[in-house]
Amino acid sequence: MNGAAIKVLYFAQVAELTGTRQESWPLPHSVSGADWLCQLEARYPQLAPVSRLRLAVNQRHVAHQASIQAGDEVAVFEPVTGG
Amino acid sequence: MNGAAIKVLYFAQVAELTGTRQESWPLPHSVSGADWLCQLEARYPQLAPVSRLRLAVNQRHVAHQASIQAGDEVAVFEPVTGG
Amino acid sequence: MVIVQQDDFDAARLQAQLRGRHAAGAIVTFTGYVRDYAQDAATRSLFLEHYPGMCEREIEAICAAAGARWQVLESLVVHRVGELRHKEQIVFVAVASAHRGDAFRACEYIIDALKTRAPFWKRENLADGDSFWVSQHQADADKTAQWGDDPAGAGCGPAAVPAEAAGSAAAVPGQAARPKTAISRNAASQAATSQTEETSS
Amino acid sequence: MVIVQQDDFDAARLQAQLRGRHAAGAIVTFTGYVRDYAQDAATRSLFLEHYPGMCEREIEAICAAAGARWQVLESLVVHRVGELRHKEQIVFVAVASAHRGDAFRACEYIIDALKTRAPFWKRENLADGDSFWVSQHQADADKTAQWGDDPAGAGCGPAAVPAEAAGSAAAVPGQAARPKTAISRNAASQAATSQTEETSS
């Protein structure tokens, strides 16, 4: 389990609130997206409420009950506003 | 009544069948489009059946029961195929 | 703006002008091209005949109807006439709107209505020398009827109504499924009149 | 083909290339422009941030879904990122088809889906110096849901489903009617990363 981690990417307003755009996040065992968002909120209280945030795992949109595992690329962002 | 007439325009296949694109047509009294189409078919039997033909009176689409009066510009054509 | 002309058109320049005149969030365009109309033979060219004056007036009425129904900043229609080669542009419709849904709806309405109301007629010249007047597709009349409009002239016959009134395209038996009408080989030359008309609205 | 780039694009050249590759009867295009997003203040510019890689993959998946649903010869999407001034082009969608109805449907589907699935974020810089991240409009999520698709990430919460599955956009209370979110005056600079990605499919 040592060294097990995910790569976390922050975009747009989320990146502004965390003050970083990318970091490595230790993940000893897999968790649901919702549980991981609780960890995220504990570290960055300024992101609350995290229920509004969207997750992508390995560059695919996922629901909050999706599983996150070591080695994943996890992106956190507000609902998209392109087009 | 002397000299009362309509201006008739033929387009596309109708012009080919009549052999002309425009002519003056004596019209002593007003008629319905359907009745006038009967006159047209009598003169140009090659246009039969005339029920398929469309009429415009003074550059507006009209139904066959519309009235045609002296002085009108009457156009005769197959259903349109632009675009 | 409605333009009927023989010359080809520069859609990009037209769209840039449209955009310059409005702070539109969205522009939707439709471009129609000369394709193979006959199922079993290659199209060499099309000849587009039209009814000058009525043509522009009908298209302007169609654009006005679209503007009454959806939020439209401006509609632009360019339609070519005369001899057009395979793959050339025939028609361009552009609609500028603050709302993309309205722009899509209005643009499709305009081209659908144009196909059943604007007095143009296509003669197809095949690669083998045959020549045909293209017949109206029932599908086009059906599409127009779906917008709640009566296709032009569908109201011929006793139960008919004027083209501006609501009605059904299904009133004309015998119009369906006539993909093309053979006139005669090379009989088309006498109908060739190509005029250039330009009207603004 | 999907292109994400900082530079402006030449829609006419792109459409001409599309037409050259197919004997399409119809090409429908959508162009989106920078407009005033705030109701009460003038927009000076937009900054478009994106998620390189995922962005192109999502748009390609959207185009593939459109091609599976309608008759499409080819779809083309160009989306700009970085700093864009008022009235500049943001996005261009072009769809070539033998059938105009399919071209209209596919083009509108693609832009609707892009707005709720493709990972772009707009920051609006107002003329008075304020800066805002634009929030997703509920109307955009609703439009996507009307196509039978689930807007990306609408499935957060216990009743959620993956974004690829069918579902309803109404599952997220509190997302509605937030036209914009104030972050802070000029707080935007640290988020500014503008990359140019070009991918073909």
TrEMBL record, chains A, B:
Question: What InterPro entries does the record point to?
Answer: Beta-grasp_dom_sf, MOCS2A, Mopterin_synth/thiamin_S_b, ThiS/MoaD-like
| Organism encoding this protein | Candidimonas nitroreducens
Q: What is this protein called?
A: Molybdopterin synthase sulfur carrier subunit
Task: Tell me which family the UniProt entry assigns to this protein.
Answer: Belongs to the MoaD family.
Identify the GO cellular component terms for this protein. Answer: molybdopterin adenylyltransferase complex
Q: Which domain of life is it from?
A: Bacteria
State which gene encodes it: moaD
Q: Which GO terms describe its molecular function?
A: nucleotide binding
Bilayer-crossing regions: none
Per the record, the GO terms for biological process are: Mo-molybdopterin cofactor biosynthetic process
CDD domains, sorted:
Ubl_MoaD
From TrEMBL, chains C, D:
Which residue intervals make up region (Disordered)? Answer: 142-201
- From which domain of life does this come? Bacteria
For this protein, the parts annotated as crossing the membrane are none
Q: What EC numbers are recorded for this enzyme?
A: 2.8.1.12
Report the Gene3D superfamilies cross-referenced here.
Molybdopterin biosynthesis MoaE subunit
Q: Quote the pathway field.
A: Cofactor biosynthesis; molybdopterin biosynthesis
Compositional bias, Polar residues, is annotated for 183-201
Cite the record's Low complexity compositional bias ranges. Answer: 151-179
User: Mind listing the UniProt keywords for this protein, alphabetically?
Assistant: Molybdenum cofactor biosynthesis
Q: Please state what class of enzyme this protein is.
A: transferase
Q: Which GO terms describe its molecular function?
A: molybdopterin synthase activity
Reactions mediated catalytically: 2 [molybdopterin-synthase sulfur-carrier protein]-C-terminal-Gly-aminoethanethioate + cyclic pyranopterin phosphate + H2O = molybdopterin + 2 [molybdopterin-synthase sulfur-carrier protein]-C-terminal Gly-Gly + 2 H(+)
Transferase recorded as keyword: no
| GO BP annotations listed | Mo-molybdopterin cofactor biosynthetic process
Q: Which InterPro entries match?
A: MoaE_sf, Mopterin_biosynth_MoaE
The annotated subunit structure for this chain is: Heterotetramer of 2 MoaD subunits and 2 MoaE subunits. Also stable as homodimer. The enzyme changes between these two forms during catalysis.
Q: Which family does it belong to?
A: Belongs to the MoaE family.
PANTHER family cross-referenced by the UniProt entry: MOLYBDOPTERIN SYNTHASE RELATED
Name this protein carries in UniProt: Molybdopterin synthase catalytic subunit
Q: Which organism is it from?
A: Candidimonas nitroreducens
